[in-house]
Amino acid sequence: MAGSRIDSPTHSTWTDRQKACQMSTLFILHPVFFSPSKTKIYRNPQPTLALSLRSSNMGDHEEDDRDGGEQGCCPNAPKLPIQGKRNILITSALPYVNNVPHLGNIIGCVLSADVFARYCRLRGYNAIYICGTDEYGTATETKALEENCTPQQICDKYHAIHKEVYNWFNISFDEFGRTSTPQQTDICQAIFKKLMEDNWLSESMIQQFYCETCSRFLADRLVEGTCPFPNCNNDSARGDQCDKCCQLLNPTELKDPRCKVCRKTPQIRDTNHLFLELPMLKDKLEEYINNMSVAGSWSQNAIQTTYSWLKGGLKPRCITRDLKWGVPVPHEKFKDKVFYVWFDAPIGYVSITSCYTLDWEKWWKNPENVELYQFMGKDNVPFHTVMFPSTLIGTGENWTLMKSISVTEYLNYETGKFSKSRGIGVFGNDVKDTNIPPEVWRYYLLTNRPEVSDTLFTWVDLQAKLNTELLNNLGNFINRVLSFIAKPPGLGYGSIIPDAQGVESHLLTKSLAEKVGDYVEQYVEAMEKVKLKQALKIGMSISSEGNAYLQESQFWKLYKENQASCSAVMRTSVGLVYLLACLLEPFMPSFSLKVLNQLNLPPETLLSLSDETGDLERARKPWEILPAGHKIGTPEPLFRELKDEDVAFFRTKFSGSQAERAAEGRG
């Protein structure tokens, strides 16, 4: 795609408009965490617990306005990188704002990143988790036409829906923002100007449909027609894809094309656009990929996709579009165009961080001290491993480039695929109506996380995992331990954790402790490599070991025959209960809070797996985790059985499309 060089317009120094962040918080809904035992509201839900009991430094603070001041000036001040600590910047692919996220979107991006962010906090790393809605582009304009409103109204509506869904799933963003902000415009245009100054941009003419009735060039999704593929002939195919046969299309391939708005036949016209010269950046990009894919242990699917793009030969990539809803191009010749969403959206990570702290460059222009971890579905890989790094490299500035990328395949639904456009599957706003609690949904999605191949959501499988793994394994172990301790003296311990004299000589307990210590080390190793599914399985194995330990010890007999041994078993077991709350907190934070409550520990107690405080070694002596003499709370069942009739009901309720459900009164 040959193009001619273009000259940069006069480039004045970028005026710092970051102080407008104060205004942008009016539009960005911050996550809150409601403690089950308090009415205070906390920003950034990070309910973590400690193997050695410590007080939380969060305190009882009401919501406050950030002033972007020095770190530590107040408990809710933005976190900044700290010299000598692991500083980890975590992002998940920005969900597009034109629809409600389905379960496949949630596990592929925000939930996976949340688990890792919570783990990083558990380990004592200095980590922030940044995300937000991707709001510019064709899909927003199209949705606005469908709902007969403005693009801004669409963004406001669906941003709030996304925020509500993620709050319900207990996603612990440090900042959940949006891309339709002044900060996004400033940073996007500044990057563009640097690329232009350094001659990484060219211009070239392309052909595109133009609607004379609407007086506009038509983006792919604004063109409809008959699918050109044999045996399909769908007469409602879009210019980018046919939803009937799922083939990707170019608008000019459609038979009988028509404008989606006025239904008239458009004409093909030439239009001038700007391109990022990826071939000229290839050497620098390949050096980055070759080094970081190894250092950052990129997931195999990310590596395969990235090298496939490189082997196919990089081509200049168009960065502009003939739209109105987007970041305007700051160049006189292209002033009627906006930036293409692939160019604009990844910059959203940066601009949303700038709304979190005015010192955003300390995170984003600090590769020596900050590690960037990014989470996404497989369809987003080239934008994050090829195009976004190329954009940042081209500026010549010292950007924090991605170190590690964790990529999921697709989560499919029952007999087909989840689909936002067709309304197929279970959506984020559906799950709360099932009365199945968030921890169960999180657990099921994470055990079913499509890390190396596509996986399948089925209601029967959800039932099996809930009833067998959560109820009969994890819930059963915790309830047996706490219920026995809670029994009155003569039958139990009157809710008081007993002392454990001579536990070091109790062979069964020592054997269990060694196994648990090994499991904790394996858990940490898996989480450091972002093997989330493996780490969750390891955590649940500790619960299985606990059940076997209880059974083999026959504690109900020991209570009558050998009180000292029974006390050792009970104090060790209640330590395991606490350890499970710690290890499983990244996966099921609301479960961990319930366990804390039943242990009669305050919800702001910090769970920790820090090397600095010896927490990993302490896991090898679980009888020392909770102090003798501590009075526990009231044991209650943690999980409820999902019955066959429930499964049948949900399968019927969520069959077909959302439109079909609504028409039949099932939605």
UniProtKB/TrEMBL annotation:
| Intracellular or extracellular location(s) | Cytoplasm
A Pfam match is Anticodon_3
Record keywords, A-Z: Aminoacyl-tRNA synthetase, ATP-binding, Cytoplasm, Ligase, Nucleotide-binding, Protein biosynthesis
Question: Is the ATP-binding keyword given for this protein?
Answer: yes
List this protein's GO terms for biological process.
methionyl-tRNA aminoacylation; post-embryonic development; reproductive structure development
Main EC class the enzyme belongs to: ligase
* Record's GO cellular component terms: aminoacyl-tRNA synthetase multienzyme complex; cytosol
What is catalyzed by this enzyme? tRNA(Met) + L-methionine + ATP = L-methionyl-tRNA(Met) + AMP + diphosphate
Q: What EC number is given for this enzyme?
A: 6.1.1.10
Task: Indicate yes or no for the key word Aminoacyl-tRNA synthetase.
Answer: yes
- Where it mainly occurs, coarsely classed, is cytoplasm
Annotated Methionyl/Leucyl tRNA synthetase domain ranges read 88-482
UniProt xrefs under InterPro entries: aa-tRNA-synth_I_CS, Anticodon_Met, Met-tRNA_ligase_1, Met-tRNA_synth, Methionyl/Leucyl_tRNA_Synth, MetRS_core, MetRS_Zn, Rossmann-like_a/b/a_fold
Location of region: Disordered? 54-75
What would you give as a GO molecular function for this chain, any one?
A: ATP binding
List each copy of the Methionyl-tRNA synthetase anticodon-binding domain by range: 509-658
NCBIfam families membership: metG, PRK00133.1
- Which family does this protein fall into? Belongs to the class-I aminoacyl-tRNA synthetase family.
Task: Tell me the protein's name.
Answer: methionine--tRNA ligase
